[in-house]
Amino acid sequence: MKQLKKKVNETNPFHNRKMIAIFMYVICFVLFASLFLRFTWIMVRGEVNGEDLRLNVEKLYTRNNVLQARRGTIFDRNGNPIATDATTYKMVAILTDEWSSPSRPQHIEEPRAVAEIIATHLSLNEDDIYARLTQDSMQVEFGNAGSNLTFETMSAIRDDLSENELTGITFDESRSRFYPNGTFASHTIGLAQVTDESDDQLHGVMGLEKQYDDHLSGENGWIKFQRDFFGYVIPDQEIEEVDPINGKDLTLTIDRRMQIFLESIVEEVDQEHKPEYITANLMNAKTGEILATTQRPTFNATTKEGIDQSWQNLLVEYTFEPGSTLKAMTLAASIQEGTFRPYEYFRSGQIQAGGGTIRDVRREGWGTITHLEGLARSSNVSFVHQVEEMGHDIWKSYLDAFGFGTRTGINLPNESNGSNPYESPLQKINTAFGQGIAVTPVQMLRAFSALTNGGTMVEPHIVSEQTEGSEKQPVISPETAAQTLEYLKETVYSEYGTARGYQIDGFEIAAKTGTAQIADPETGGYLSGPNNKVFSVVGMAPADDPELILYVTVQQPELNTISHGSQAVQKIFNPVMKRALKYYSAGDDMQSENSYANDMPDFVEKPAQDAIAYLEENGDAYSLIGSGERVVQQFPRQDMQVDETQRVLLLTNGAMTLPDLTGWSRNDLYRLAELTGIALTVEGEGFVTSQNMSAGSFIETGTEIVVQLASNQE
User: Fold this and answer.
1) d(CA 654, CA 630)
2) Where are the alpha helices (DSSP H) in 166-289?
3) What is the pTM of this model?
4) Would you call the peptide bond into 636 cis, given omega within 30 degrees of 0 as the criterion?
5) Residue 439 three-state SS
């Protein structure tokens, strides 16, 4: 009976369900208790797996945006912008529908209608735009014509598309540094770029942009606010905001007119003779202000074309043996020491000194001549006599006093000391005529200023606010400085002077030429060959009381159309010094009756006929690129000042057309190439006489244009 009862109990389904229910209750209780404890723990601690939930929620609904500080503008001496902040836009068309929804299309739905609107704002043909919009691609860009768009152009396109309910066009915004003059003292002005995409902050990476980065940068601000789940800003909230502190502006001593003119002249010589290096620097002889400076190789700061050639600023980093231009210092020292006797005779050709043989450029010499004639002919032998008579130690003290072997302190990065080892007897002698010593162009400018400033050197500088250095002791007396300039006129106006080709009509100048050998690191000697030299000249004018110093060097030019490298130097020196003297003679601060005619208005998105009417009324030369009715790009840009030598270029909407280039200068052509993206080949010198495509031909980015220049074109 007990066994039967036990068996009944074991098979009782009610009993089993009760046990299961109890078990489930226990499990549920444990789970609930665990969840309760977990939630309590999360509520108390506010974190899960080490992550702060409050912080995550704040990140989800709170926006903390950086308010970018404006980088300071760099101006020339007359207030013209040289480097400014800019926000530009690149147009992109979305062709795929992968990112679209039925209610919110993001791609191009009506390519013909979109093409029609875009063609009214950009220098592109409507059919070309339509072809791009119907490609089998995810998205498409529009090349040069659709890049670097201004806010006004971007807004006009966007508004027209929105008004017509057309989709598929987006704009990528980028913050950049804008250099409106293109190739313009580029290594000296430098570059500012976004070096870290995470902060979108511009930083100077070269030249004055780098040297004055802290001054120009400013400090970013920020704004903090909350938004809801759908991204809308929550109303009536307290918004936290810290305003940015904009960077400070920088005003330079550079004169934009002279700089542009210098760039155009140097570019012509560079294209024709393809030298290894060119340096050209114009300085105020009394104050040390650098009025214009350029070099080759260089680059276009706007397009970055050519930047891979060299990052070296030749004004302060290029060291070379100066050759005979340093004889101006030797002459001054020997006059000061009383060892230069101009009418005393010596035997030219060669001399034994310092354990070696020193020769004149003309090995046989010119016979027995006076030291004044030796100066005019740039006789090495004559200057060896000067150093031998004054003594090596005294001559070394003058080299030191003129600053060779020490930095000038000009506020540019990476300035070199140069070198003046002055060790062996032969090396000491060679410094008399600029050999065995390495200098920078800015050191030479500083030394020359002693001759133009009554015997006391001035500090070359390029920033207007740069404070003057400590008072310098005179290197030579005022009388010696004046006498040195008087003798240096002999090199220009004597019948046998080496600088006769540097005469400037209407002005008297003092000058010294140089033809320096180039050291060969492989042999320890010097390179051979007629063009393996550094050809140079320094000119100081007006000679009786110089206000300007122009120093030009051309290293290893091709002697293709000339017989001597000095002729390449003349092609730079003569027109630049003539232009500078004319500006200076017109009045204070180099103003001229032919200076800027007007500030350039903003023609972008304006009717082309209105722009033409304005330019014709002001007597400005202009050219239309395209046959559209609306201006979409222009050069010079808004607020840039225009002088009588500049051609205004107006790019209209629709397809680009090639203007008649007859009479255009090389500088005008480069502006055209920069504006349109054409591939330009320039042959010859002077002004355009012919072009390979007729005026009115359709062009686009990459179209090859070949033009012929001739010097007889007025």
Assistant:
1) 9
2) 186-189, 207-211, 213-217, 256-273
3) 0.78
4) yes
5) strand
Summarize the chain as % helix, strand, coil (round to 5).
35, 25, 40
What's the first-to-final CA gap in the chain, in angstroms? Answer: 137
Are 485 and 338 found together in one domain? yes
Residue 441 scores a pLDDT above 60: yes
Tokens of 26: 């226990």
Spatial strand order in the sheet of 62-67: 62-67, 221-226, 240-242
CATH of the domain at 619: 3.30.10.20
For residue 173, count CB atoms less than 10 angstroms from its CB and return exposed for 0-12, middle for 13-18, buried for 19 or more. exposed
Token digits of residue 277: 């290096």
Q: What are phi and psi of 561, to 5 degrees?
A: -120, 10
Res. 588 pLDDT band, cuts 50 70 90: very low
Chain CA centroid to CA 129, Å: 33
Pull the structure tokens for residue 618. Answer: 């002001």
Q: Whose CA is closest to 546, among 583, 573, 576, 511?
A: 511
3-state secondary structure 359-403: ECCCCCCCCEEEHHHHHHCCCHHHHHHHHHHHCHHHHHHHHHHCC
Q: CA 33 → CA 25, 30, 47, 66, 557, distances in Å?
A: 12, 5, 19, 46, 90
CB 669 within 8 A of CB 685: no
What phi, psi does 711 have (nearest 5°)? -80, -10
* DSSP conformation letters of 510-562: EEEEEEEE-B-TTTSSB--STTSEEEEEEEEESTTS--EEEEEEEES---SS-
Can you tell me the mean pLDDT for 490-498?
Answer: 96
Contacts of 642 (CB under 8 A, 6+ apart): 596, 597, 598, 599, 600, 620, 636, 648
Q: Any bridge partners for residue 204, and if so which?
A: 192
Same domain flag for 81 and 229: yes
Alpha-carbon distance of 704 to 166, in angstroms, equals: 35
User: Rounded mean pLDDT of 142-146?
Assistant: 85
144 shares its domain with 275: no
Number of domains composing the chain: 4
Amino acid at 64: N
Range of the domain at 622: 598-710
Whether residues 401 and 541 fall in one domain: yes
Phi, psi of 439 (to 5 degrees): -130, 170
> Do residues 450 and 580 both lie within one domain?
yes
Q: How far apart are CA 178 and CA 484, in angstroms?
A: 45
**Catalytic residue list:** 324
Pairing of strands 74-75, 81-94: antiparallel
Q: Is the pLDDT score of 1 beyond 80? A: no
Is 673 within a domain? yes
